[in-house]
Design goal:
With 381 residues, the protein is α+β, with helices and mostly antiparallel strands. The chain is built from 15 helices and 15 strands. 38% of the residues lie in helices and 31% in strands. The chain has a five-stranded antiparallel β-sheet. Strands 7-6-10-9-8 form a five-stranded antiparallel β-sheet. It comes from Paractinoplanes bogorensis.
Length: 381
Amino acid sequence: MSSTEDLLAELKSQVEAYERGSATAEYDPEGRLLRANDAFAELVGVDPAAIAGTDHRSFVSPEVAGSAEYTELWEQLRAGSNLTGEFRLLWQGGRDRWIRSSWVPVKNRAGAVVKVIEHALDVTAGKRAAADAAGKIQAISRSQAVIEFDLEGHVLDANDNFLDLMGYRLDEIRGRHHRIFVDADEAARPEYRAFWEKLGRGEFHSAEYRRIAKDGRDVWIRATYNPILDPDGKPIKVVKFANDVTAEKLRNVEFAGRLAAIDRSQAVIEFDLDGRIRTANENFLNTVGYTLDEIVGRHHSMFCTDEYARSEEYRDLWADLRNGEFRSGRFHRLGKDGRDVWIQSSYNPILDLSGRPVKVIKYAYDVTAQVRLEQQLKVAV
């Protein structure tokens, strides 16, 4: 065998080996199939024995086949241009299938294209996974404020939700450092520098953060800082997803202020639903003369006379509270030394998010002096 024949045999063997691992088809310059291997026939969902002569248009939707882009594709192939890219095929049964193809025109000695060879790879699973991921990202972007940073903290991009929340345009923040959203004192602290160093190492952060809008107002966000990794696991940027919780934060501050005011002015004690003491404030402890350690875990009945604690009225009180029913009035209680204590109080069942009682809080005023005065006046009369 001559060296030329050896070379041709080697080339033929290489082509056959490549075709065994690749979906391969050959077309005439008008797009009609001349031949295709079994892998390609399986890829497009056509019987290998009947695939010859099939027009490539049958593999794509009518909209694609009639488009200017499709016409241009075959004009470029007939002109001898090599093309690569991803293409959507209409698989047998009407289901879409995506392939990544390379198209190679074959020319004769005169330079005219006599056929086109396509090598294809099924990328449907990857395409669907990418579409799923893109859809999830779009859903997040529609509902959350999103901003991207480089590893040093400079802004790369931000969505409209973030820009609206902070009052900026994108061109006003792109390239600037994250510290424009942070109080100057906080930005100067070592903890702030350490925060970005940790993100640069790929560490995730999640918390509530106070940030400063363009007009100087405080914005509270519940946010996650997410380092994005390359295929080798190295951080390449940071994406923050955030929700505005300013209104919630202000409500919580108001509630906390109200509770603090109540705690300063009233006697407060908490019970579980069975009446056992969980905690009490200083005003309550001073009213009854106990320390907190002396009452935590004990039953409310320790403040009642034995007769009242055994009564049906007392049992009904706690049954009603366990059912979420509010009670208020003037009550006779006993202090540590057995002295009489009169309180004007309300028993308030606290409900969980499902509306179920979880504990009872009592708010009370010591009206002992008032009751004694009333009793003295009655005696005098």
